Amino acid sequence: MSQKLIGIDLGGTTIKFGILTLEGEVQEKWAIETNILEDGKHIVPDIVASLKHRLELYGLSKDDFVGIGMGSPGAVDREKKTVTGAFNLNWKDTQEVGSIIEQELGIPFAIDNDANVAALGERWVGAGDNNPDVIFVTLGTGVGGGIVADGNLIHGVAGAGGEIGHMIVEPENGFACTCGSYGCLETVASATGVVKVARLLAETYEGDSAIKAAIDNGEAVTSKDVFVAAEAGDSFADSVVEKVSFYLGLATANMANILNPDSIVIGGGVSAAGEFLRSRIEKFFLKFTFPQVKISTKIKIAELGNDAGIIGAASLASQIESK
Amino acid sequence: MSQKLIGIDLGGTTIKFGILTLEGEVQEKWAIETNILEDGKHIVPDIVASLKHRLELYGLSKDDFVGIGMGSPGAVDREKKTVTGAFNLNWKDTQEVGSIIEQELGIPFAIDNDANVAALGERWVGAGDNNPDVIFVTLGTGVGGGIVADGNLIHGVAGAGGEIGHMIVEPENGFACTCGSYGCLETVASATGVVKVARLLAETYEGDSAIKAAIDNGEAVTSKDVFVAAEAGDSFADSVVEKVSFYLGLATANMANILNPDSIVIGGGVSAAGEFLRSRIEKFFLKFTFPQVKISTKIKIAELGNDAGIIGAASLASQIESK
User: Fold this and answer.
1) Does B176 touch chain A (CB under 8 A)?
2) Do the two domains B4-120+307-318 and B131-303 of this chain adopt the same fold?
3) What is the value of ipTM here, to two decimals?
């Protein structure tokens, strides 16, 4: 009888692996470096070799597993189990992934994009409490996410579902986004977006602030610097956090107003600001939601941290069984 | 073998009934007046009597049907098949609906709220082309709708899913909404919302306009008057349509940016403005969506008109089979 799951979190620097129980408990985990040389042609063979080595090491065979799940950057074709345009892996053209791993390991394989997979992880054993309706928002270099509605990950007609970073929160005077639009959430709530908001507000702020001084002096300022200063009482930095929270409150409220999830879970590097950020977002969230949503949808900070990828990937593998 | 579906569209003025094939073709339809006297206590017995009478008339028995579906105003409990707080039916307290109809007719029964049911109808045989990802927006006295994502109607944790009218499109200087928030889509895109936008713009518009003159004279102006004048070349009325379309373009774009449906279908009384309104909404929709969504999600006008309710209700009944 099949008893375990394998989750793989494929990133541009490392590939993380986990062996998990069907309940989502991590039993073993390891990582290897991602070798992106020669158009990333070593990546899939390296994954196969590492899996074979570890299964032998642990005395496990293909019959011990329900499936292998993987989260990948780039555009994922879930049916063909291929990845296209994953630039941080040097995979410009379409790369066969699932067919090779299934053939070499003999275990069923499922793949989805990394933000969707992280959403599955947080929903399964993280802040989402395994509820059928959970939205995950990741605030990092960009803003991404995944939407689980009525128990299903929402992909949409062209696979662009869950692109929370491209919700428009500043329709008339927004910053330009890499997508071609103006005023996307990503332009004001990613790590670089927070700094953009700080630069804009610095133009008109009058008063003492180490952060404003650093910006005006042309020093490198990070989103973390802004949050740390705001928590320490810098009122300029606080006004930046207030504005970023306004945008996040508006975007999360609009998602909740139409989808009414049990929770919206905030993850990614910027979410390290924790309760300080969560409570600020919630203030605006409560301003912009209607009564039934206010009392039923919660704003939470992600719980899984570094393991979200392998846990979510294992969750994807667990769904193979039910098909 | 079960071959047909019954759809019931329960409204405050009439109750519409339809007998449909499993493919969604209306074979018979009829309507009765809604008797809301005595706390609406006659409504369910009237439905039962009308169904029994018609089935006898057509020589049909319970074995000819897969199920009965119903769309209802108010707060619907889909599990208990009850309705609470449907004020236009005089149902203030919880009303048993499904248990009585199932007992009297011996046919499985399913119920959902009227906006969700209309969404199912448009998705099934209307503008939605039976695609698994379709959003329906109804612009009438209020703004409502339903979201079908990955084949499922999205209800959310407290049943508030699909409340598209309460998306915030004017976060800082919006009109007050009946829900308690400010700047909801409903306050600017419902029939009365369009007139509110006209009144606001009339304050600063300089130039000749019969619509502006009517507003300034305190005459009754409807959203239809505004659209008719705009199409006839009244530039004040045109500026109102432009502003309303901006809000609808923003709201539909933000839904598409996160859910990437095949289409967003616009229905309800205000949508009678047809292609004139659709193309205006699309202009802003294309401004506010990111590239993958621009080329994959379409803005459409609803096709089913008056029959949407019975067709959607029959669609709900058709899903009983698959359980």
Assistant:
1) no
2) yes
3) 0.91
